[in-house]
Amino acid sequence: MTESVIARHTVGGFTYEIDTAKDRLDIGLIHDFLSRCSHWARGIPREVLERAVANSLCFGLYCDGKQIGFARVVTDEATFAYVSDVFVVAEHRKGGLGQFLVETILAYKPGLRLWLLVTRDAASLYRRCGFDDLAPDRIYLHRFDPDVYQTAAERAAAD
């Protein structure tokens, strides 16, 4: 394994690996998936994604050298990490690769006190990786702008 490849897994004749090298990421694939296929980042401009990638710890999931998945982590590297933009392309789902990706990420940064993520439809995956609902004595608060990816011109036209 190269230094940036942190995990390798072979299933059914295919070799899957997780790599932290940003220069290997297929930004076109990531942007296409997030902006068109995801419910959480639909419409994200490419330049916003590029800035997010530049300022995050990124994990590319590859099958025989071709990128098929992605995740990124925003962290202070000492106590806290937020897991975001996790996906595996449709053709490679249902084979445990999402769990492989998340478990590899968690093992890559041991010793952090709090890992956080938000999901609409993958809670069972994250629970298998050790995540749980917030404690009943905790309240999760957020500030969310669903229209942030609209351009000023689009907002003006919508008004």
Whole-Å distance between the termini? Answer: 54 Å
Q: Assign the CATH architecture.
A: 3-Layer(aba) Sandwich
CATH class assignment? Alpha Beta
- Classify the helix fraction into a percent range: 25-40%
> CATH superfamily assignment?
Gcn5-related N-acetyltransferase (GNAT)
Shape: globular
Strand fraction: 25-35%
Number of helices, where a helix is a run of at least 4 consecutive DSSP H or I residues: 5
Number of strands: 6
Brief summary:
With 159 residues, the protein is of the alpha+beta class.
Describe the structure in your own words.
The protein is built from 5 helices and 6 strands. It has 159 residues and is α+β, with helices and mostly antiparallel strands. The chain has one domain: Gcn5-related N-acetyltransferase (GNAT) (Aminopeptidase, 3-Layer(aba) Sandwich), CATH 3.40.630. It has a 6-stranded mixed sheet with strand order 1-2-3-4-5-6, sandwiched between helices. A hairpin with a 4-residue loop joins β4 (66-75) and β5. The chain is globular and about 55 Å long. The termini are far apart.
What descriptive keywords fit this protein?
single chain; 159 residues; alpha+beta; Aminopeptidase
